[in-house]
Design goal:
The chain is an alpha/beta fold and 282 residues long. The chain is built from nine helices and eight strands.
Length: 282
């Protein structure tokens, strides 16, 4: 089954998408399942993993309600605040939904990501790791080192790095990002999403070859069994349409990659990570 492992829906009038403003006219409108359906069909996708786009409990409830109505939403990655002493109460509520498949930690938005190292946060994450709950990690390349410190404390985390940790492709950042990403790959429970790359490149002047070294390094570090394709639609529309996002990845794959490897990347790994994991979610 082909699966898009990372996409979003939102309804502007809900009011909790603070980052989507009229200054981003491409995104400042509703994006709902009816808008994504033609792309599912065109790219022969069996469905997608819907990821939260706002750090609120209400957002998670909203996207779970969308999942109730749309079979193409195979799983939902929600949001929980591990700094909140009641995080477990919220998790236990969400986990009763059959399509709830874990939550995302928004490291990217933390003013001081070193706060992730406080004992209460670490203990909370250790609990979810012990239960093999799928955890998405949204971070930028400058936050990679502090996140590695967190992983030292929670080495059995069952997680996935979103958007290849957002290297500054437009500035040519590579060596430090690549070195840190190789350290992430040493943790056997971690996966990496080949997603969100196009918006880190020059939005009006990127070329497909700009992404090749990044894609190749991710694939070398994590191997074919721990990588996933994600479009990051509709955020990708800031720099490329869906077809272009797919083409960028297709063109960057090593010539030696087999059809079996491609099947893992374009769906089987996402299926295993989110839909067959089991763990604490049932």
């Amino acid at each position: 089954m082909r699966i898009d492992a990372h996409q979003h829906y939102w309804k502007i009038q809900r009011g909790d998408y603070g980052w989507i403003t009229p200054e981003l006219p491409v995104l400042y409108r509703d994006f709902l399942p009816v808008d994504f359906e033609p792309l599912l069909q065109k790219h022969q996708l069996g469905g997608s993993i819907l990821v939260q786009a706002a750090p609120t409990l209400e957002e998670t409830e909203y996207i779970l309600s969308l999942a109730d109505e749309n079979p193409s939403i195979l799983g939902v990655v929600g949001w929980i605040d591990l700094f909140d002493p009641d995080h477990r109460t919220h998790y236990n509520k969400f986990r009763t939904h059959p399509k709830f498949r874990g939550f995302r930690i928004m490291i990217q938005d933390m003013e001081d990501p070193s706060k992730m190292l406080i004992p209460s946060f670490v203990d909370a994450l250790r609990g979810y790791a012990a239960e093999q709950v799928p955890i998405d990690l949204l971070l930028t390349s400058p936050q990679m080192e502090i996140t590695l410190q967190l992983l030292e404390k929670v080495p059995n985390l069952y997680g996935v790095i979103d958007h290849i940790a957002k290297p500054q492709i437009a500035k040519g950042e590579f060596e430090s990002w690549a070195s840190n990403l190789s350290q992430f790959a040493k943790y056997p429970g971690l996966f990496c999403k080949l997603s969100g790359m196009v918006t880190e490149a020059n939005p009006s002047g990127w070329k497909p070859e700009d992404f090749v070294p990044y894609v190749r390094h991710v694939l070398k570090a994590f191997g074919p069994e721990r990588v996933m394709f994600g479009s990051d639609w509709p955020v990708c529309l800031l720099a490329a349409d869906y077809d272009q996002v797919v083409d960028i990845l297709e063109q960057a794959l090593p010539p030696a990659w087999s059809q079996a490897d491609r099947d893992l990347l374009f769906g089987e790994n996402a299926k295993r990570f989110y839909l067959e994991n089991g763990g604490a979610i049932s």
